[in-house]
Amino acid sequence: MSDLPADAPLLTTPLDALHRELGARMVPFAGYAMPVQYPTGILAEHGWCRNHAALFDVSHMGQAWITGADVAGALETLVPASYRELKAGRTRYTVFTNDQGGILDDLMITHVGPDRWFVVVNAACKEADFARLQQGIGDRVTLDVLADRALLALQGPTAAAVMAHFAPASAAMVFMQAGPLDVAGIPCFVTRSGYTGEDGFEISVPADQADHLARLFLDHPEVKPCGLGARDSLRLEAGLPLYGSDIDTTTSPVEAALTFAIGKRRRNDGGFPGAGRILAELEQGTSRLRVGIALDGRAPARAHTEIQDTEGRRIGEVTSGGFAPTLNAPIAMGYVETAFARPGTPLRLIVRGKALEARVVSLPFVEQRYHRG
Amino acid sequence: MTTLYYTEDHEWIAVDGDVATVGITAYAAGQLGDVVFVEVPDDGKSVSKGKEAAVVESVKAASDVYAPVSGTVIEGNQALVDNPALVNEAPEGDGWFFRMTLSDIGELSGLMDKTAYEALIAAAG
């Protein structure tokens, strides 16, 4: 048998002792020892998140405050979303782009108000992201990287009831709303968002109280711990791209079907890195697009699987693929030539030399259940 | 009489005369996590020691199952194809992958016995 994981010295999150106590299998991820799964396994964890409330440790991600008189204007020089219009207490997804219009990272930015903003970026990119913010807009804003905070995600259809138990005011929040909130008496910063397709919250908590808060959540009968393995299968079902797999510097936001992350005003005004290419693509389209793919058989198609048309011509490549526990079937995401991007288009995926029948389907694979109020 | 051998690739091979049954160990199944797909070789397929013979896929990743010795496949475990979770439930029993005839009994001498294999996984932590 091939490919069993190896061990290496790694950074740890404030919940490291808890993970080990819970029997997690720890794996290296973006330089951190992270729980890939707990003893119940990925399928059970995935199902628990779809039906109850799952607690994830995502403390490896980067968190920072940005303060200043015109943070929105400064941020807009680095990303294509509109932030001048974003009300205080609201979060908006965006991407850092490079001058070629490729994606350097995807991130969440919250307008805390009045002059304070909060950003959350991917673990593997955080040093580069913070350096980019400092170099790009450090003369206009103050960047305060939060090394002393953990980040928990509570996700699932009963996450709201659990949160309301510990933080009654959370009940009034809707999807992509955010603000400071006491959770079980601990001063946190809470966003109603997530990476599973379910309703839920991301909770930034002081590192020295993270273990205590996590244990309070886990004592609730609706809450079980979930690892990065389930986080990946959940986000894939929800159609959400993973930076480094589905999006990177070789993909533009338009190719990646992330045009919603490009603000309306910005489509006219530009003013962000790579705007030339990206605005032209919005106008004229792209030669390829990110799509969802459903396979007919049982065999999963993993990243880098070749995609062919029914004539056997190469038309693209899978960027994420696996097994969808909710659908009990293999699913994938990948890029295909634009002519083949319409839902229902038959494809062939070449797995171990065999052509597997598949078709384009619209994303998400599993309906997102955000609480939009 | 059946003799059980193990490989460094975390497979077991139960040999009875010149016929053997092959699977992955409980340790390997535990490391893989929930298995969602299995591909076993067809009857009559020639396999070579150390080369890919079957496929096992967890939610996260695909892994090859190697032939621990050379020979000819006489049966793939269809029950495993129909219910891949058998790999997790009974990796060293009903979760076997394939049966084969051995072309060179001498290849068995390079494999581990149970004691040696248990020492290997103990050392792996």
From TrEMBL, chain A:
Residues covered by the Aminomethyltransferase C-terminal domain: 290-366
Pfam family, one: GCV_T
Known catalytic reactions: N(6)-[(R)-S(8)-aminomethyldihydrolipoyl]-L-lysyl-[protein] + (6S)-5,6,7,8-tetrahydrofolate = N(6)-[(R)-dihydrolipoyl]-L-lysyl-[protein] + (6R)-5,10-methylene-5,6,7,8-tetrahydrofolate + NH4(+)
UniProt lineage: Bacteria, Pseudomonadati, Pseudomonadota, Alphaproteobacteria, Rhodospirillales
Organism for this UniProt entry: Insolitispirillum peregrinum
Known EC number: 2.1.2.10
Protein name: aminomethyltransferase
Listed Gene3D superfamilies: Aminomethyltransferase beta-barrel domains, Aminomethyltransferase fragment, Probable tRNA modification gtpase trme, domain 1
Domain GCVT N-terminal: 17-264
Transmembrane segments: none
TrEMBL record, chain B:
Function: The glycine cleavage system catalyzes the degradation of glycine. The H protein shuttles the methylamine group of glycine from the P protein to the T protein.
Assembly mode: The glycine cleavage system is composed of four proteins: P, T, L and H.
Cofactor note: Binds 1 lipoyl cofactor covalently.
CDD domains tied to this protein: GCS_H (cd06848)
GO biological process: glycine decarboxylation via glycine cleavage system; protein lipoylation
Entry annotated with the keyword Acetylation: no
Pfam name, any one: GCV_H
InterPro entries documented for this protein: 2-oxoA_DH_lipoyl-BS, Biotin_lipoyl, GCV_H, GCV_H/Fam206, GCV_H_sub, Single_hybrid_motif
Residues that bear N6-lipoyllysine: 60
Gene name per UniProt: gcvH
Record keywords, A-Z: Lipoyl
Keyword Zinc: no
UniProt record similarity statement: Belongs to the GcvH family.
Coiled coil: none
Cofactor(s) essential for the protein: (R)-lipoate
Protein name per the record: Glycine cleavage system H protein
GO CC, one annotated term: glycine cleavage complex
Domain Lipoyl-binding: 19-101
